[in-house]
Amino acid sequence: MSAAPAVGPALALVLGALAAAAALLARLGGIGAGRDLMVASVRAGAQLAAVSLIIAAVLRHAGWTALFIAGMVVVAVGTAGHRVTGSSRGNGWWTALPIVAGVAPVLALLMATGLVPHRTVAVLPIAGIFIGGAMSATGLTGHRSLEELTARRGEYEGGLALGLPPRDAALELCRPAAALALFPVLDQTRTVGLVTLPGAFVGVLLGGADPVEAGATQLLVLIGLLAIESIAVLITLELVATGRLTRRTE
């Protein structure tokens, strides 16, 4: 018997009910994210349906897989850039630097050592996890750092008055906020196997591997994410401190 949920009316009803419940709770709680939750749920469904239809064709050829990964990066840059700058235009394209600089060396190392097999079915999901982690770390770091600079403008200007260069004054305020971007991956790594069984572990296990192999794969993903997100956070912090990433004002 398959461990995957049956695709049918029951799945659609449950997913719709869960999304509606999340949106309603957010609205009743005054969080203000109800619409975003619904839109994200609908988008996720549409995107995964589309990906499910094309992924088999993509995995047949290394070139198509590479193109698909490049598309992931483009979407990640657009998403992180919008999160940081508040606009789809402007200097959000700078977020490409922390995302690529984080993912490329780690993925290249894993492939060069053979820890990730040179097969499209292995490279694509690992690349997707890594790109997603870099995107989240970049977006959170940039967003929180710019919020901190806005909220504590007086302290920033005080640092300038004391003779600190603009970059150093910004870093003094932004470093603690940027460190928070690493909390999700840190918590996930600390509690892996105790609180959750993450996706890579479950996926490899369902694919027929034994638990030790699944655990090794998950550990590789988590430690890789720690390195990737650390790189992304530090580069994003530098981009904010040097004024390359700024909040768009209308």
3D structure, described in words:
- The structure is a single chain.
- The chain has 250 residues and is mainly α.
- The protein has two domains: 1-58, no CATH class; 61-241, no CATH class.
- It has ten helices and no strands.
- It has helices at 9-28, 34-58, 62-85, 96-112, 120-151, 153-161, 166-179, 183-191, 199-206, 211-241.
- Helix 1 runs antiparallel to helix 2 (34-58), helix 5 (120-151) crosses helix 7 (166-179) and helix 7 (166-179) runs antiparallel to helix 10.
- The longest helix is centred in the middle third of the chain and has 32 residues, at 120-151.
- The mean pLDDT is 85.
The total of beta strands comes to 0
Nearest-integer average pLDDT: 85
> How many structural domains in the coordinates?
2
| Major sheet summary line | none
The stretches of 5 or more residues where confidence is low (pLDDT under 50) are none
Give the distance, in angstroms, between the N- and C-terminal Cα atoms: 56 Å
Shape estimate: globular
Structural category: mainly alpha
